[in-house]
Amino acid sequence: MRQARGLQIPGDMVFSWQIPMSTECRILPVTAKLRLLTFYRRLSCLVFLLLAMSPMRALADDAPYSTVLLEEGVQPAFHQLPGQLPAPLVTSDFADFSIYKNWLQQEVTEQEIPGVAFAIVSSSDILDLQTYGVRNIQEDDAVDDNTVFRIASVSKTFAGTVASQLVNSNISTWDEPLSATLPYNIGTGAATSQMTLRHVLSHTTGLMPHAFSNMLDAGVAYEKIQEKFHEIPTVCAPGQCYGYQNVVFSLVADVVQASLRTTYDDFVVENIFLPLGMTQASMGYEAFRDNPNASAPHQYGRGGWRLSSVNTAYYTTGPAAGVNATILDMVRWAQANLGGSPDVLPRSLLDMQHTPVVETPRGNYFNRWPKVTKAWYGLGWRILDYDGMRVIHHGGGVRGYRSEIVLVPAYDIALVVMFNAETRLANEVVPHFLDNLQANINAL
Fold first, then answer.
1. Which residue in 433, 294, 284 sits closest to 369, CA to CA?
2. pTM of the complete model
3. Could you read off the pLDDT of 24-39 as tens digits, one per residue?
């Protein structure tokens, strides 16, 4: 037979046990002959009950599992002592990326790509950093740690941080209509007046995708395109559909200027580059042009790589494509986004940016990676489910340059790759890295 026993402990939690009472522990009639024997039996029962009703002491003594007796046939879910738990994976457990490095170097050599810089990092360490090739195919100067590249749309990840800093500091909000802040009309539909900072950062403005990117391609500066903002077709209400933007994304800069009376470029330098120690990073064309270690842009044509011109118009859309950086600068950026600089990028800010906002449709190169099962855009970052891993990603391409960055927060690891060439190899560097990472983990 079983009798229930309960015990009240601090925290208003009640534990109950089903305690089997053996024949010896039943209360027996007391007679003169049995009095002494019964006394000892009762004493042993009392000791048994006290032990059975003391799980907190049992746990404190590192019992292999709770001393609570289980129903017949039910086994403990876990048998190891706390000290026997397997240690969580740390980066050094799976940090052999020699297969990946060999693959990348072979591809760069076979395709005769002019210049490349890449790094694999954790939040606190540089696990690997390599540079290949030359800054300019007409010169012999090698790419090194301090060679500057245009990172193109990876600049959007910085804009996400700028917007999050504005919100964290109560200078702006995610959900107040920008029409209350900006002095011009945007879009052909009345619904666009409800567009917010969140919509801009997540590409859910409801405006025609890539609005006026053709004008940027033609060399028209952002300031001139502003005059046509009211002509951008509204295709859905804000927040109801995804449409990637460059010109419209750069409204973030207008919000900074209207709210703080400072330029977006200065804000990024003072609040991101300098605090993170990104000493060679810069904003804008002039800073790029004047850097003696800047890489030159290259495009492929007529059977080989050729020098290309710099499209300065994209520099006028600073939030979308205005950042210049070395591989060492991008190391610090990747580490900060893994949580390595909480004084500059606190966890609350990273969570804002790295949380999915809108699912992105198939069609982009990253959506075509075979192991991507879901893809979203957050606030300046893409979020992907890749072969069971949640990864944070962005790529960039502008005339003569490609760049890729991917974070795997669960394993505290990130990859950055930059090319001074428009190469399709950039489409492959992230999935190859993630496959190598997954293979290393599976081999443990």
1. 433
2. 0.80
3. 343 333 333 334 334 4
